[in-house]
Amino acid sequence: MRLNYEVFYETPDTVKEKSCQVCGSACDVTRGVYGPSNFIEAKNKMADLYDVFSCPNTDKDWHELALKLLMAIDEMPSKRVAALMRLDLQDLLNENRDNNE
User: Fold this and answer.
1) Which of 54, 69, 89 finishes a domain?
2) Which residues, other chains included, contact 22 with Cβ-Cβ below 8 Å and sequence gap of 6+?
3) Residue of 15, 24, 8 lying closest to 67 (CA atoms)
4) 66 and 48 both lie in a single domain
5) In a 3-state reduction of DSSP, which class is residue 42?
6) I need a labelling partner for 67 at 20 to 30 A (CA). Which of 49, 83, 86, 95 fits?
7) Which residue range(s) make up the domain with 69?
8) Number of domains present in the structure of the chain
């Protein structure tokens, strides 16, 4: 899972709900998780309380493809190419929203 795209760590009870940045779905939430929330904390054996929000679609192939497209769009220096990629992303999301409802 990709941090700040499809999984989010928040200070406990400060955020009511979050949406996946990839597909727009409402995230599942697990509140009051104790442990490291990133590599640095894990490496230094640090831990804290936080709420974890994660997209319910992260295990689906189409969501992984959508994530790759979104990340490529974010890194694309060409506005025209990024616009075409956004169209592909929108098509992929529309096709799979229809199949998941």
Assistant:
1) 54
2) 5, 6, 55, 57, 63, 66, 67, 70
3) 24
4) no
5) helix
6) 49
7) 61-100
8) 2
Q: Tokens at residue 96, please?
A: 């799979």
The answer as to whether 48 is a domain residue is yes
Distance, in Å, from the CA atom of 1 to the CA atom of 7, rounded to the nearest integer, reads 6
Q: How many CB atoms sit inside 10 A of residue 3's CB?
A: 10
Q: Is 1 contained in some domain?
A: no
pLDDT tens per residue across all 101 residues of the chain: 788 889 999 999 999 999 999 999 999 999 999 988 778 888 998 888 999 999 999 999 999 999 999 999 999 999 999 999 999 999 999 999 766 54
Structure tokens at 58: 């992260």
Residues 65 and 95 occupy one common structural domain: yes
DSSP β-bridge partners for residue 54? 7, 28
Helix (H/G/I), strand (E/B), else coil: 93: helix
